[in-house]
Design brief:
The complex is a heterodimer of chains A (291) and B (270).
Chain A lengths: L1 H7 L16 H23 E2 L2 E2 L2 H6 L2 H33 L4 H14 L4 H12 L4 H8 L13 H26 L2 H9 L4 H29 L3 H7 L6 H10 L6 H33 L1
Antiparallel strand pairs in A: 1-2
Helix pairs in contact in A: 2-13, 4-8, 4-10, 4-12, 5-8, 6-11, 8-10, 10-13, 12-13
Chain B lengths: L4 H26 L16 H8 L1 H34 L5 H13 L2 H12 L10 H26 L2 H10 L4 H29 L3 H6 L7 H9 L3 H30 L10
Classes of the chains: A mainly alpha (291), B mainly alpha (270).
Chain lengths: 291, 270
């Protein structure tokens, strides 16, 4: 503190308080011109016309097809986030309870490598694996299990499986610090007091992990809600998602007033920001609980 | 943490199978003469790889992707690193703005980002819309947190104020302090950030597809075109994407591992 006041303070003369912001101007110009203003443009054009404030674009944008796309996107995101949280936590528990360091390290590295892995190559890998003539499909057929036609990889179910490929690793990375925060002594104390494994989880483990699990759920939900490339490569326009609808509007495949596209974008931004701020709020709680 | 050995092994094996089978299947498929009616490939060949890599479009799209990824990584590194250093040493109260910019980048879906940029910049007479420039700008928004996080963490792990004061009391100006004292100390963070940005932009499809479409074809666009036209050649392209993503991720893990070692780590630290 003393050295701080000695060397850094004398340069800050009272009138020059604003000058200290000058070095941040480039990054703020970037933020304002590519983040803030474009999004405000969307907001304004979806809410205003010459006569003033209107919600007409929102009511008109929500045609049955669009309502269906929102319902599909919400379902897909809920399913992949829920499955990601459940299975990701199980795998994370298996990883950290492994006695060998090399197993723990290499599995965490695998999660690290695969979590940023979405998009076209992933979708294509799933077509080759679980498509109508996919490798697993053929092997299962040989042992008498016919996946098709009940199952299709080019469907919402298929998309759920493909999304889990990046949701699972993300969940593993998110939850490992919280799982490591569960102290062995708590487990031993609970067992000594006569609890069994399920009682421990119900009364001790889950309540402690709850904020971390909920915040991870929101992050996974957002991760899936905004995804487009995987869905587009895997299913094309077959599966009706919000992002697929907005992309079609941008490419001009559907003739519509641009304001209606803006309204859709604003609604999906609203859903995303609820998830992101919920995540930030809850993960703050989870961190406080840990320290 | 306790877990029954049987269940632990089962869970890990199933997880590994889920993560590895699609990749191995894609690789094998790209090397098979035919593999769509029998359990095993009917024969092995490298002809799909030869065919697909010989095309002029292959080299062009690969080059486009490499250039756009490198340019985005460098621009973001140059823009973000000095700013975060300044925020750390002189303007702590500006940090929430950076956090907000990161949250924004994560929270905005790619399609919405593309739409917002097109709606605003199509009315403005600067050479941005329909050029690779707008793609770089959009990718910079998309990757902002990937650059910000590692650099901010690296700055947190060294005593920025003490280093800055030491440098300045020895007569170092701000630029010299940044380039000769701070950046060498946070190099692992800067490089990790750049690599993360590079691999993200390399596999970027949504923004490219919607912002520049067919005017500037990148590798993922080329890959998606192929999936609808020749599966075996497309699988070779998919394998190349997998390899690029892995190599950059492994490099990042390797750098992080080197940093964690007590020797050869950064000066200072907690």
């Amino acid at each position: 503190m003393t050295s701080d006041t000695l060397i850094l303070r004398p340069r800050r003369k009272p009138g020059k308080k604003l000058l200290v912001w000058i070095p941040l101007i480039p990054v703020f110009i970037f933020g304002v011109s590519f983040q803030l203003i474009p999004v405000l443009t969307l907001l304004r054009s979806s809410l205003f016309r010459e006569s003033g404030l209107t919600f007409e674009y929102f009511t008109r944008a929500f045609t049955p097809t669009i309502i269906n796309s929102f319902s599909n996107s919400l379902k897909l995101s809920t399913a992949t986030a829920f499955l990601g949280v459940v299975f990701g936590s199980l795998v994370a528990m298996a990883i950290i309870s492994s006695p060998k360091k090399i197993v723990r390290d290499s599995l965490t590295a695998l999660a690290d490598v695969t979590t940023n892995f979405g998009g076209a190559p992933l979708a294509f890998a799933f077509i080759i694996t679980l498509g109508s003539t996919g490798v697993i499909t053929l092997i299962l057929k040989a042992i008498g299990v016919n996946l098709y036609p009940e199952f299709r990889i080019y469907s919402i179910t298929g998309l759920t499986i493909a999304y889990l490929y990046f949701q699972l690793p993300l969940m593993i990375l998110l939850i490992i610090p919280s799982l490591l925060g569960l102290k062995n002594e708590w487990w031993e104390a609970a067992i000594n007091l006569g609890a069994n494994s399920s009682k421990f989880w119900w009364h001790v483990g889950l309540p402690i992990l709850a904020p971390a699990l909920m915040s991870s759920f929101l992050l996974l939900f957002a991760n899936s809600f905004g995804a487009y490339a995987t869905a587009w490569t895997l299913t094309g326009p077959d599966v009706n998602l919000v992002t697929v609808q907005i992309a079609a509007l941008i490419r001009g495949e559907v003739q519509l007033q641009p304001e209606l596209a803006d309204a859709l974008a604003v609604v999906s931004l609203l859903i995303m920001s609820l998830c992101v701020f919920g995540y930030i709020w809850l993960s703050g709680k989870a961190n406080r609980g840990r320290s | 943490m306790r877990m029954n050995k049987f269940w632990r092994t089962m869970i890990i094996v199933l997880f590994l199978a889920f993560m590895i089978i699609p990749v191995v299947a894609t690789l094998t498929f790209s090397l098979s003469t035919r593999w769509d009616r029998s359990i095993f490939p009917e024969g092995m060949t490298t002809q799909w790889w030869q065919l697909v890599t010989e095309r002029a479009a292959f080299k062009l799209t690969l080059r486009n992707s490499l250039v756009i990824s490198a340019v985005t990584a460098i621009c973001l590194g140059v823009l973000v690193t000095p700013s975060i250093y300044w925020a750390h040493v002189r303007l702590q109260k500006s940090k929430p703005i950076f956090e907000l910019m990161s949250a924004f980048s994560f929270g905005i879906p790619g399609v919405v980002l593309a739409l917002s940029l097109l709606r605003f910049y199509s009315k403005i007479p600067i050479p941005l819309v329909n050029t690779p420039n707008i793609l770089v700008a959009a990718c910079m928004v998309l990757c902002f947190p990937f650059m910000y996080r590692p650099v901010a963490n690296a700055l947190d792990s060294i005593d920025v104020k003490v280093l800055t004061e030491a440098a300045q009391s020895l007569g170092c100006g701000w630029w010299n302090t940044l380039f000769r004292v701070i950046i060498p100390n946070i190099m692992p963070g800067v490089i990790s950030g750049c690599l993360l940005v590079f691999s993200t932009v390399f596999s970027e499809f949504t923004l490219t597809n919607l912002l520049v479409g067919s005017r500037f074809k990148t590798f993922p666009i080329y890959l998606v075109e192929f999936t609808r036209f020749d599966g075996r050649q497309a699988s070779a392209l998919a394998v190349i994407s997998f390899v690029v993503a892995w190599v950059t991720s492994l490099l990042i893990i390797w750098i992080a591992g080197r940093r964690a070692k007590p020797t050869g780590g950064p000066v200072g630290g907690h």
